[in-house]
Amino acid sequence: MMVFIVPLKAQNKIWKRHIIDSCCSGADGVRIADINGDNLPDIATGWEEEGFTKVYLHPGRRHVKELWPALRVGNTPDVEDAFFADLDNDGAMDVITSAEGETKKIYINWSPTDPSNLMDISQWESRVLPTSEGLMQWMFGIPIQIDSLHGIDFVVGAKNKRAEIGWFKAPKKPRELGQWTWNTISNATWVMSLISSDMDHDGDLDIVTSDRMAGKTNGVRWLENPGKGSKVNQKWKNHYIGARGKDVMFMDLADLDKDGLEDAIVTQYTDQEIMYMRRLDTTGTQWESYSIDIPAKTGRAKAVKAGDINGDGKIDLVHSTNTQRDENRSGVYWLSYPNTPMDAVWEWHNISGPIGYKYDRIELLDLDGDGDLDVVTTEENYGQNSSGLGLLWFENPLNNR
Prior knowledge:
By secondary structure, the protein is an all-beta fold. The protein has one helix at 8-12, and strands at 16-21, 27-33, 42-47, 52-56, 70-75, 79-85, 94-99, 105-110, 125-128, 137-144, 153-159, 164-169, 181-187, 191-197, 206-211, 219-224, 237-242, 248-254, 263-268, 273-279, 287-293, 300-307, 316-322, 332-336, 347-350, 363-365, 374-379, 390-395. It has a four-stranded antiparallel beta sheet with strand order 1-28-27-26, with no helix packed on it. A four-stranded antiparallel beta sheet has the order 2-3-4-5, with no helix packed on it. It has a four-stranded antiparallel beta sheet with strand order 6-7-8-9, with no helix packed on it. The longest helix is centred in the N-terminal third of the chain and has 5 residues, at 8-12.
């Protein structure tokens, strides 16, 4: 029998918090890509209250615990999400911003082709995608090649009135923004997550989503890509995974039980539970759900992300919440299961301590190069004038040197 010995410091210690940027109010969302070719993760974040999108370059492991070099790449009122994609095929990662509220626009922030000019604001160009303007309150997007034509396409979801999930089709000349077209995939209520994955193992990428509010499309589901060529304009079939009737938030996909099938995990605040939806077959149509209780020592469910936090070979979860200004609660924890992922009660390990109220979406990656997974997130309500802690990361103590 193999026995894993996990250092106590990885289990029970509040993690060190490092601020990447606390310039302003309302940091909202974290998206990752290497945009300058140094094999280190860079970040895009929207600042919702301030109305702009910023890009952050990883400063190198020696300086990773300091403030990161940053650039405001676009004025984007009501920004809710910003992600990277090379839309014009020039080898440089552009930034696509989704705006909700009264703005209802998608902004394309064109990056300079030469990486040495990334921090020169005069080399960036921010434009509104005309087809997006006024259609709906845009929430979240991902790059994905759907039609195998021209450049990369991208999928976006929205919220509230006229909300849909759909894709913007790249034209032959992607810089001609007036030529991009919107193609509806599904109605929606309030899209929190979009993940691309080949759910039915047919060779193309399907879309998995968590859809938050009450309505016909609420819950966790996946939308079946009809295929390429003449099939590309056919209807995307809807397949429910679980959590119907629940106020679902951010979700993730991971093989928790190590059976070779990718499972779904979502957190929801209707019942204050994390829902583990175990996949039963390769078709993606058979699932069974298990609930993991969220204890009172943390806040209202916000986001969940899967990864091996303590190095024991098992998949753990990291969970963020809104503590609603209760200083007796901590907003970010990681969870480990005692026996199997089907356990109703997992062991909760504090990451953040009581500092911070409203944490958001999570990314897990090794920022400091010590071989363990750190936690990157934003916090938007803590401190004076509720300006928030900003964009930050928590240092996993497992492999501290």
